[in-house]
Amino acid sequence: AHKAFIFDLDGVIVDTAKFHFLAWKKLANDLGFDFTEAQNEQLKGVSRVESLKKILNWCNMELTEEEFNRQMALKNENYLSYVDEMEDDEILPGVSKVLDHLLEKNIPFALGSASKNARTILKKVDLYDKFDAIVDGTDVGKAKPDPEVFLIAAEKLNVEAKDCVVFEDSVAGVQAANIGGMTSIGIGDKNVLHEADHVFQDFSEIEIEFIEELLRKE
Ligand code: G6P
Ligand code: MG
Fold first, then answer.
1. Taking a C-beta distance cutoff of 8 angstroms, is the pair 53, 69 a contact?
2. How many helices (H) and strands (E) are present in the chain, helices listed first?
3. Averages of pLDDT over each 10 residues, the chain, 218 residues
4. pLDDT of residue 195
5. 75 lines ligand 1 (CB under 6 A)
6. pLDDT value at position 218?
7. Which helix (H) or strand (E) holds 141?
8. ipTM confidence
9. How many of the other CB atoms lie within 10 Å of CB of 149?
10. What is residue 206's predicted lDDT score, i.e. its pLDDT?
């Protein structure tokens, strides 16, 4: 049966996916290129380095190593300026209800994020101490859809991969969970996240009974 839960951060627990979008868009525009929502979809769940590589690829552009690093730093600075203005009530609707239920029932849960800013953000919304394990962009080398981040999280929780449920808003993240042999729950558009085992528009659509069902199910 399912024994543990793993949550992605950006776009699942907090609405920071929109800040990543704005920061990448600014970077692309500053380099003289358009940046579409469809392109952004392909960057969700993807590490900072890999994201910039993809953008440069779309723009057919090459940067020196120094300029590449400078652009990454600028993007992050811009992103963090949005994060700075976040309030601690910016946890996405319905998320706290699920986390509180897991806490109450002593069901372990971890964070599995590609972000190097994950710990900062969790502290900002007062969730840092609630997770049994945190695995983020500072702990992993391989970007989603590689399952590494979730496999490390499962190991830290002492639970087998097949007994884990992963919540993800990105295509790459859903694929990572599937490749890792975990149950994947997509948060977002059904058409985009069609590879997930279940999809909900957001956490407010998830009933506690559904969580309980997952815990009973293989
Ligand atoms: C998450 C987000 C991505 C972001 C990545 C790295 O996976 O979905 O949009 O690029 O983390 O985040 P960072 O905060 O380290 O730049
Ligand atoms: Mg995400």
1. no
2. 9, 6
3. 96 94 96 94 93 96 97 98 86 96 98 97 94 96 94 98 97 97 98 97 97 92
4. 98
5. no
6. 76
7. none
8. 0.98
9. 30
10. 97
Residue 1's identity, in one-letter code, is A
Q: Is 111 exposed, middle or buried (0-12, 13-18, 19+ CB in 10 A)?
A: buried
Per the annotation, binding residues for substrate are 8-10, 24, 43-48, 51, 75, 113-117, 144
CB 17 within 8 A of CB 10: yes
Direct distance between the N- and C-terminal alpha carbons of the chain, in angstroms, rounded to an integer = 4
46 Cβ closer than 6 Å to some ligand 1 atom: yes
- Rounded to 5°, the CA angle 24-70-59 comes to 45
Q: Whose CA is nearest to atom 16 of ligand 1?
A: 48
Q: How far apart are CA 196 and CA 217, in angstroms?
A: 16
How many angstroms is it from 74 CA to the middle of ligand 2? 21
Amino acid identity for residue 139 in this structure: D
What is the pTM (predicted TM-score) of this model?
0.94
Residue pair 116/136 in contact (Cβ under 8 Å)? The answer is yes
Question: If you measure from the C-alpha of residue 205 to the centroid of ligand 1, how many angstroms do you get, rounded to a whole number?
Answer: 25
User: What tokens were used for 137?
Assistant: 């962009």
pLDDT computed for residue 88 by the predictor: 66
